[in-house]
Design goal:
Length: about 120
């Protein structure tokens, strides 16, 4: 799975939230200043070429939907991130963020408990 650019990720965040949308609906969810219709349309078509997005025809318009779940992308992205910046060590990553955010042991344990409860 390819890594998304910042603009592509912004569009995917909206599509993950809406589950399916026309380009104008995607634009409505984006922050100000709103990008041009053609810009968003181009990015959506690139996402489709990359295999992240599919579409359904509605007359002359297309309604787009994600083909990749947010959790699947997050998992792949995080593996690459940890590999690239922390030599593949999740322990190093947690240690780094614990120091950077001044997390106490209790806060870290609470986060770990929450993660354990979320795990299927």
């Amino acid at each position: 799975m390819k890594e998304l650019t910042k603009a592509e990720e912004e569009i995917m965040q909206v599509l993950w939230q809406l589950e399916s949308a026309f380009v104008k609906e995607v634009i409505a969810e984006l922050p100000e200043p709103k990008p041009a219709y053609n810009t968003v349309s181009t990015i959506v078509r690139i996402l489709e070429q990359k295999g992240f997005v599919g579409h359904e025809s509605h007359g002359k318009s297309y309604k787009y939907h994600p083909l990749i779940t947010k959790s699947a992308y997050t998992k792949t992205f995080m593996k690459g991130f940890v590999s690239k910046y922390f030599s593949g060590s999740y322990q190093q990553m947690v240690s780094f963020f614990t120091k950077e955010d001044n997390l106490s042991i209790n806060e870290l344990e609470q986060l770990l408990d929450e993660l354990k409860q979320q795990k299927p």
